[in-house]
Design goal:
The protein contains 9 helices and 8 strands. 37% of the residues lie in helices and 17% in strands. By secondary structure, it is an alpha/beta fold. Helix 7 links the parallel strand 6 and strand 7. It binds 2-phosphoglycolic acid (PGA). The site of 2-phosphoglycolic acid (PGA) has 12 residues, from strand 8.
């Protein structure tokens, strides 16, 4: 199988944990590490083969006087290849609306980053209002279907539900689709086996090297 295993460390981790991964984990081309900003440059300088993702980027493009912001161009300049945009935690805790999300996606694509674009149970409305026109190169967007009810709760929807939603998104919107929400080494086999799924986005379990090693066997 060749499917994405995307780690999303969120606001967690440490240099010690990252060193442990760099020294002991078997990275390959299907594994993408979504690290806090502060670890990205370090990870890249230690091992150029690790595929890195940021967990967000600024709405501002390029460079400029935007204290505290990190643009997609800055990310690209240190070897980052992906960026997670519109995670439900950013939608709810930072009030990211459709306009903000569209702009961030557009900026990221124009900087040459690939986008891991998160949607929830409201995927139809979100995709229709946020992925706007031909400027959005759908080949470089991976849709992450992450039901809010499944994030960090241990409550995964049925395989049928994941299958129905992801195949619908794939056919209707012509983008790659992954699933996220309480994925771990115990349930990944059934989830990753769904035909319409191109991979998984993993939060909590991605902080454990043993879990990641086990999950990588299926990807
Ligand atoms: P979880 O998080 O695996 O801890 O549920 C997934 C995510 O929010 O991306």
């Amino acid at each position: 199988m060749s499917k994405f295993l995307i780690a999303n460390w969120k606001m967690n981790g440490s240099i010690e944990l990252l060193d442990n991964f760099i020294n002991n984990f078997e990275f390959n081309d299907n594994i993408i590490m979504g690290l806090p900003y502060i670890f990205l440059g370090y990870a890249n300088s230690r091992n150029k083969n690790i595929i890195l993702s940021a967990q967000d980027c600024s709405i501002q493009n390029g460079y400029g006087s935007y204290t505290g912001d990190i643009s997609s161009d800055l990310l690209k300049s240190i070897g980052v290849r992906y960026v997670i945009i519109a995670h439900s935690e950013r939608r709810s805790l930072h009030n990211e609306n459709g306009d903000i999300i569209s702009k961030k996606i557009k900026n990221a694509l124009s900087s040459g980053l690939k986008v891991i674009y998160c949607v929830s149970e409201e995927y139809d409305r979100q995709i229709q209002t946020e992925i706007l026109d031909d400027d959005f190169d759908r080949d470089n967007i991976i849709v992450a279907y992450e039901p809010v009810s499944a994030i960090g709760t241990g409550v995964v929807p049925s395989i049928d539900n994941i299958k129905n939603v992801t195949s619908k998104i794939k056919e209707k919107y012509r983008m790659k689709v992954i699933y996220g929400g309480s994925v771990n080494s115990k349930n990944i086999k059934d989830i990753i086996g769904i035909d319409s799924i191109d991979g998984v986005l993993v939060g909590g379990a991605s902080l454990k090297i043993d879990e990641m090693q086990e999950m990588s066997k299926y990807c």
